[in-house]
Amino acid sequence: MERVIVLAGGMSYEREVSLSSGRRVADALKQVGMQVEIREADAGLLPLLMEDPPDLVFPVLHGAEGEDGAIREVLELLGVPYVGARPDACRLAWDKPTAKAVFRQAGLATPESVTLPKAAFHDLGASAVMKAVLDKLGLPLFVKPTRGGSALGASVVREAAELSTALIGCFSYGDVALIERFVTGTEVAVGVIEVDGEPTALPAVEIIPLGESYDYTARYTAGQTEFITPARLSPEATEQVRRTALAAHHALGLRHLSRSDIIVDTDGTPHLLEVNVAPGMTETSSLPLALHASHLTITQILSSL
User: Fold this and answer.
1) Cα separation of 184 and 24, whole Å?
2) Which of 73, 122, 124, 218 gets the most CB atoms within 10 Å of its CB?
3) Which candidate, 222, 214, 217, 303, places its Cα nearest to that of 263?
4) How far apart are CA 13 and CA 89, in angstroms?
């Protein structure tokens, strides 16, 4: 393999994160002698792929452009090989309520939740709908858009009066809200990579934000979050989160790499929140941290993929 195109950037809210991840992927592949160029998924991409197809495309697009399956569907149409999940699997993982339904069918614990569009609050009366949500799920809650990443539009609700503000913030990033029962415990990220075609779970990365939650600022600002790898879990819980991440990877039909976000409660039970098909590769992203803890380099793994 000689020539690789890394897709990064895009027009989503996560553009800067994608560019940072893309540069790191490109640098890693260049270290093993590959010819790499970073490209945007714009009007010039398809003519390039058709006229001068690369040996491989490595999508590092975050947000809808890179994770909803559309760009990968186009790569399939053109017959261009690429790293990462196939389109159908991306669509399953991208829509969080759908993914949660898949998790439940696979016997994986995931927080109880309700999914409601903005129109429901407008048409049925926001106060009445919010009261029904609170009566059903109680407090605290976690509110986030059903589609998207990097915790954009996501917030913790600890008092009933905070739910309205949380929903307004959520709807600024999407028209449908996923409202989950908040699980107190240890937050971990578990990466899965395929080594010789076999999915392998990396050490869990424990996430300790300095603020109230692991929001966008905490994720991508150095010093705002403490990461501990491997996570400080019991041997039993460590094995359970490993099995959970692998089961989620299989249940969604993913390939090559993924990252599962999990809360381990005080009883040691893992609660699967969501799975990302395009894990971040920045300096503060959990997957590179887990690789380092495994005595693997990002260059080794990315070039292998």
Assistant:
1) 33
2) 218
3) 214
4) 22
| pLDDT (average), residues 111-118 | 97
Q: Given a cut of 80, is residue 222 above it in pLDDT?
A: no
Asked if 26 and 36 count as a contact pair (C-beta separation under 8 A), the reply is yes
Helices (H), the chain: 15-30, 45-51, 64-67, 70-78, 87-94, 96-105, 118-124, 126-137, 163-171, 216-220, 235-251, 286-293, 298-304
Q: Residue type at 113? A: S
Q: Is 119 helix (H, G, I), strand (E, B) or coil?
A: helix
| Residue-wise DSSP of 40-90 | -SSTTHHHHHHHS--SEEEE---SHHHHSSHHHHHHHHHT--BSS--HHHH
Residues marked active site are found at: 14, 150, 220, 259, 261, 274, 276, 280
Q: Which two tokens stand for residue 75?
A: 């790569």
Q: Where does 111-226 have alpha helices with state H?
A: 118-124, 126-137, 163-171, 216-220
pTM: 0.92
